[in-house]
Design brief:
Elements: H1 2-47, E1 50-52, E2 64-67, H2 72-86, H3 93-97, E3 101-110, E4 113-114, E5 117-120, E6 125-129, H4 139-159, H5 167-170, H6 184-187, H7 213-225, H8 230-236, H9 241-258, H10 264-275
Helix pairs in contact: 1-2, 2-4, 4-7, 7-8
Bound molecules: zinc ion.
């Protein structure tokens, strides 16, 4: 009888020992899920957009593939950064741009080519890869991509063309300068360091900016909007007349588009622009 009692007691202890870690794990993952839901709800309210991270959404061209975000810590970290970065835009900016859904994924590809993002304003979508261009990319790069790609959508909202060529922009550059064939050119010449800020030519802070007008403008917007990137604007602004013209045009255009003059880019660059 005593033996049977002891056996029952041991069995009960084993069951309790098994249940406790399960309960801890369950409450941990429930906690993470609710943290994701809370962060998403905050972003959706602030930006008036829908955030999708756990399902596959079909793009305009049926060429985009990605995996859903299955790592809750990575997802929360990304959402926290996105929330901070996109809060820099004036209220209602995403509605003006026409982006209704931001889709987060991993291993994002278009036509089986890895991409850090795919702007799809035709369906009011912006696809962002939370692991960069297939890998473990630094937060600074992910921030740069968020602003760069949003600007492609902004240009689409203004010109109804993501590759619009502006005469006044072309005139900013030196007389014989010609852009390459587009951002796609860089994907076919990956041995070149396109993104380091080396100020390779007057008017250009990196080589990627020399691939196309729209990439030039989106690179500058990304540098203006990113706290790390903006230091390069300050470094080269007074030394480069072409760069000054381009920054002034971009700031003027963002002001006109958003119908604001009291905004993030003015408060960070307004004094610098007025000085020159
Ligand atoms: Zn681009």
């Amino acid at each position: 009888m005593l033996l049977q009692y002891k056996q029952t007691l041991i069995l009960k202890k084993i069951i309790i020992l098994c249940i406790i870690p399960t309960l801890i794990l369950t409450s941990y993952s429930t906690g993470k899920a609710s943290a994701i839901a809370d962060t998403i709800s905050k972003i959706e309210n602030n930006l008036s957009v829908e955030i999708v991270y756990d399902k596959i959404v079909k793009d305009t061209w049926s060429l985009v593939n990605y995996e859903t975000c299955n790592d809750s810590v990575e997802t929360i970290n990304y959402l926290t950064v996105l929330s901070r970065e996109y809060a820099k835009y004036p209220k209602g900016y995403f509605q003006l741009v026409g982006i209704k859904t931001i889709i987060l994924g991993k291993k994002l590809r278009i036509n089986n080519q890895y991409r850090a993002a795919v702007p799809d304003p035709y369906s009011n979508f912006l696809f962002l890869s939370i692991d960069g261009q297939d890998g473990d990319f630094p937060t600074e790069y992910l921030i740069h991509v968020m602003h760069h790609e949003l600007n492609h959508c902004t240009e689409y909202a203004i010109w109804k063309d993501m590759s619009y060529k502006r005469n006044d922009w072309a005139k900013c550059n030196r007389l014989f300068f010609r852009y390459k064939s587009g951002g796609e050119y860089a994907y076919h010449h990956q041995s070149i360091d396109w993104y380091s800020v080396t100020h390779p030519k007057k008017g250009f802070l990196n080589l990627y900016s020399t691939t196309a007008q729209e990439e030039d403008r989106s690179e500058l917007v990304a540098l203006i909007m990113s706290d790390e990137g903006r230091k390069y604007i300050f470094e080269y602004y007074s030394k480069d007349k072409i760069l000054r013209k381009k920054i002034k045009m971009i700031v003027g255009e963002l002001n006109a588009f958003s119908n604001t003059s009291n905004n993030y880019w003015e408060s960070n660059l307004g004094a610098l622009i007025k000085k020159q």
